[in-house]
Amino acid sequence: MRTPDLESLRLLVLVADLGSLGRAAERLRISQPSASRRLSTLERGLGLVLVDRTRRGSRLTLSGQVVAGHARRVLDELDELLAGAGRLRDRREAELRVAASLTIAEYLLPVWISELRARRPELYIGLQVTNSEHVPELVESGEADLGFIEGPRLSRVMSTRRVAEDRLVVVVDPGHPWARRREPLSARELSRTPLVLRESGSGTRQTLDRALYLAGCERVRPLVELGSTAAVRGAVIAGTGPSVLSELAVRGDIAEGRLIGVDVAGVDLTRDLRAVWPTGRRLVGPAAELVAVARRAVAGRRPAGE
């Protein structure tokens, strides 16, 4: 017994409804001989006689009536499946749920979202802000369609795409002894100095730990651990101690003299900012558009010739 094709089931149901093979064929816009061949194929596949063909026309046998009833339910379920898929597709096109690390959410995403909303004013965008370690969990669980992270390490296997580059900067308040240094700090000096730090699991902390490890140094000991970039920045301005923060977060403070940037030798503090989504899932719709907006925004900021 072969699985019948849907168009043959649709033809059988129309024969039941219209009482005529000819009218059923006309409704499906096929020839009557073609419709007859299709019903014959269906009968052979099921091993049943479904239609009595007489000079006065065609009518369903008892078996044909039973099969037509089953076919009607199959087609109704198919219609419901297609309608449900359409609703899901419309929802996907009208809604975008994003999870992002704090630095990206605070300093980059507002501009990216604004540009995307200008193109799609009907689009609802929901944003969850957490540290880089937890972003992949939200994306993989389906709580977010797309994530943005700033750390060098992913907590699970995911598809990723680089959207920007960031640089970490060692900063102190103007009264700190490092503010008057003329020589860059060494990697070892930095690693041996307690710092005001973001919490473990943040992208900033991961980047710093990895950079010091690659420079042959041990991890920094925290002087204070705080849960947001703004809190760390405020503590450094208040004179609590030095820190390492995203250039995005402290650029204005350095320009206005609230913080002093300190050069470090022998440590690469650059990092990639990446979009992440589940492996095996194609990036489409608003999620793909937001990634494209992010990449264009960064490309537009590059100096000519880069």
From TrEMBL:
Belongs to the LysR transcriptional regulatory family. It holds the Pfam family HTH_1. Keywords: DNA-binding, Transcription, Transcription regulation. Coiled coil: none annotated. The keyword S-adenosyl-L-methionine does not apply. One of its GO terms (molecular function) is DNA-binding transcription factor activity. It comes from the Bacteria. The keyword Repeat does not apply. Residues 4-61 form the HTH lysR-type domain. The lineage of its organism: Bacteria, Bacillati, Actinomycetota, Actinomycetes, Kitasatosporales. PROSITE patterns: HTH_LYSR (PS50931). This is LysR family transcriptional regulator. It comes from Streptomyces bungoensis.
